[in-house]
Amino acid sequence: MADVSVAPSTAPSDEGGALLSLRAVEKHFGDLHVLRHVDLTIARGEVVVVIGPSGSGKSTLCRTINRLETIDSGTITIAGRELPEEGRDLARLRAQVGMVFQSFNLFAHKTVLENVTLGPIKAKGVKRAAAKERAMELLDRVGVANQAHKLPAQLSGGQQQRVAIARALAMDPELILFDEPTSALDPEMINEVLDVMVGLARDGMTMLVVTHEMGFARRAADRVVFMDAGEIVEESDPETFFTAPRSDRAKDFLSKILPH
């Protein structure tokens, strides 16, 4: 694979190097309180992995950051700018935040190459030739350049998810959100996607990753955030979290998912 570096930041400078900041974020779905006074800051170049039991609010947290879900109260800022509610400002800010979902969400009727070039051409006004050249670099980076002219249905799940990562990178985002990116994959395809993500981490991409893949958290995370019942229960570096968790809830969670 070619080594394609992460694009340099073009966002305004922000105090302390923080790229993403959530302060006192609250979210309800009806009577269900899914996010409870969430405070979280992510620095530029940092990889933060969010783990926790099902229903703990991990995916909702991820989706609020580019306003796929609204919040009830609190603030979310990206590169020093508060997340707009709607309109062009929101679209502009969303272009700084890539997202890779559980399902690949590729356009079924477009080729792999067309899926990756569509955003830069339509949203950023990149010339078609330049968008194609960059897309081929990124498809090579994630190991699927030889699939560029196929339709998504002709690819394996792991290949489709790697195309989805290339599509996110094509917008030159400041931050990429990963919401359980391997949960829909067959076991033998998981590592090929995780290897790409580890490479992005090494390249300095800022990443927030919701996952059950504890090996990835140990291998690539700068910080592990453990959530339960909508709250951030604790956060620390991976070595500390996996060997000496502070909270009883984290200890119980790890005792159930880690080999003894």
In spatial order, strands of the major sheet run 6-7-8-3-9-10
Principal-axes geometry comes out as globular
The CATH homology group name: P-loop containing nucleotide triphosphate hydrolases
Give the class-level CATH name. Alpha Beta
Q: Could you tell me the number of beta strands?
A: 10
CATH architectural arrangement: 3-Layer(aba) Sandwich
Percent strand equals: 15-25%
Q: Note the run of SSEs as H and E.
A: EEEHEEHEHHHEHEHEEHH
The SS-based structural class is alpha/beta
User: Helical region count?
Assistant: 9
Summarize the structure.
Belongs to the ABC transporter superfamily. The protein has helices spanning 58-64, 87-94, 112-124, 128-141, 157-169, 187-203, 214-220, 238-243, 248-257; strands at 18-29, 32-43, 47-51, 73-78, 81-82, 97-100, 175-179, 206-210, 223-228, 231-236.
